[in-house]
Amino acid sequence: MNVEADTPSLAGVHHLKLPVRDLARSEAWYGRTLGYRRAAEFVEQGVLMGIVLSHPAGGPDLALRLDPGRAEAAAGFDYFAIAVPDSAAIVALAARLEALGEPHGGVWRGLRGWVLPMLHDPDGHEVRFYTTEEHTSREPGEVMRMVDAQETAEQVRPAAP
């Protein structure tokens, strides 16, 4: 059996979808902090129930769905990490967030690249960023292992990559 021949063709993430308690509040926050803009609307029985936000500089589309109960249940978990090109870009993002008064966890050395965790949107969803630039080389097929990620990250946390 040829695993590669049997592997379906995929092309990355089409969009991310989050439940929110207030569409206008979430749209304003994602626009102010990350530059997202409304690209589509979903109206059901005359009520705006969802929107799609697009990012002008290549970030993934973000769908927001009005669903207060699920928004509350999902608060605090980091369902995804948005890719950032390199360490310079993630440091610049951290500085932008600080200038906007948005608390976050700072830039840390992650398993493969640099990570900016602990930014929370108005519903408490953790919005995490991770660089596609890697600081560690690895062999194809190599499985990397992180033990006690928080403890390890604190030990190697740089002031700036």
Please write out the topology.
Blueprint: H1 3-6, E1 15-20, H2 23-34, E2 37-44, E3 47-54, E4 61-66, H3 68-74, E5 81-84, H4 87-99, E6 108-109, E7 114-120, E8 126-131, H5 149-156
Parallel strand pairs: 1-4, 5-8
Antiparallel strand pairs: 2-3, 3-4, 6-7, 7-8
Describe it for me?
This protein is of the alpha/beta class and 161 residues long. It is 27% helix and 29% strand. The chain is built from five helices and eight strands, in the order αβαβββαβαβββα. It has a four-stranded mixed sheet. Strand 7 and strand 8 form a beta hairpin. It starts with a helix and ends in a 5-residue tail after the last helix. 19% of the residues are buried. Residues 155-161 have low confidence and may be disordered.
In brief:
With 161 residues, the chain is an alpha/beta fold.
Strand content: 25-35%
Total helical segments: 5
Helix content: 25-40%
Query: Major beta sheet, specifics?
Result: 4 strands, mixed
Query: Are there runs of 5+ residues with pLDDT below 50, and where?
Result: 155-161
**Element pattern in H and E:** HEHEEEHEHEEEH
Query: Between the first and last Cα atoms, what is the distance in angstroms?
Result: 43 Å
Number of strands: 8
Order of strands in the sheet with most strands? 1-4-3-2
